Amino acid sequence: KRKNVILSVGRLTKKKDLEALINYFETIPTLHRSLLLVGGITFFWLLEGMLPLFNFKYNKWKHAVPNLFFTLTTIIINFALAFLLLGTADWVTANNFGIINWLPEMPMWLYVVLGVLLLDFIGAYLAHFTEHKVGVLWMVHLVHHSDHEVDTTSANRHHPLESVIRFVFTLAGVFIIGAPIGIVMLYQSMSLVFTQFTHANIKIPKQIDKLLSYVIISPDMHKIHHHYKLPFTDSNYGNIFSIWDRVLGTYMYLDRAQVVYGVDTFPNVEENASLKHLLKQPFHEYRKPTTEQ
């Protein structure tokens, strides 16, 4: 009996801890989100100096300027449209609408895990996959791929149009999944840190990176996606979890020593580092990519 009581108390404590975590993310202060962004970039920036994957011969600050500009525009767009996200999350919660609300009653931890997993699928994997398969969207997404020195500042190198496209997919995900705002903000906070991690120019031992890639998107796994030619560019679309690439057949492997950054159809290094050019890049005529031989 005493053992059963201890187990019950332990489960109750864990449930309360999880509830406290979700409650925190429901009303996460803007300052805390800002600290995640700035703290993450700073941490991985410093780590890149100590454990670089590639020894880029570049001015790190100069390279960061367009990337940080696009990070800022992403923040502004998401902030301006946040009322739609909040309104949708509140509506699905109030009306018990969406996939995770239609399933049989489940432990809270499973409810949260499913919510985060499905948001990662619709809001990130599906959005990313679609951008690669639809020509007009690819031209918008191209800004992200045209970076020739991928590092942690590349994480949010998204043209403002792409920020809007990604937001639409996230909004659709919240509606279809039925995710409450606490889970939405938890997912977005995780996404922020993971994208900084997967883009960071850091060298992790190959075996550790490989083990990580069975569960999450590892740095090497995502670097393959930034290879300049097909079919590797059209692989490894995941954001946080690698399950979607593995289950849906979009996982590919390439030794990191063979990865070459950029896009074969837009090879001009100077133009791809110019903010003025990058803002106009989505409006160029579509150029058909080539395939790795």
Quick summary:
This protein is mainly α. Helices cover 64% and strands 0% of the residues.
Describe this structure in words.
The protein is an all-alpha fold and 293 residues long. The protein contains 14 helices and no strands. Helix content is 64%, strand content 0%. Helix 2 runs parallel beside helix 9 and helix 3 (60-80) packs across helix 8 (160-177). The N and C termini lie far apart (67 Å).
Key phrases:
293 residues; mainly alpha
Instruction: Please indicate the percent range of residues in DSSP E strands (runs of 2 or more).
Output: under 5%
Q: Name the quaternary structure.
A: single chain
Average of per-residue pLDDT values: 92
SSE order: HHHHHHHHHHHHHH
**Uncertain runs with pLDDT below 50, 5 residues or more?**
5-10
Rg estimate, integer Å: 20 Å
Structural class: mainly alpha
For the secondary structure, the number of strands is: 0
Largest sheet: none
Count of DSSP H/I helices = 14
Helix content: 55-70%
Shape: globular
Ends apart, CA distance between termini: 67 Å
Please render the helix and strand layout as text.
Layout: H1 2-26, H2 30-50, H3 60-80, H4 82-94, H5 99-102, H6 108-133, H7 135-145, H8 160-177, H9 181-199, H10 206-212, H11 219-225, H12 243-248, H13 269-272, H14 275-280
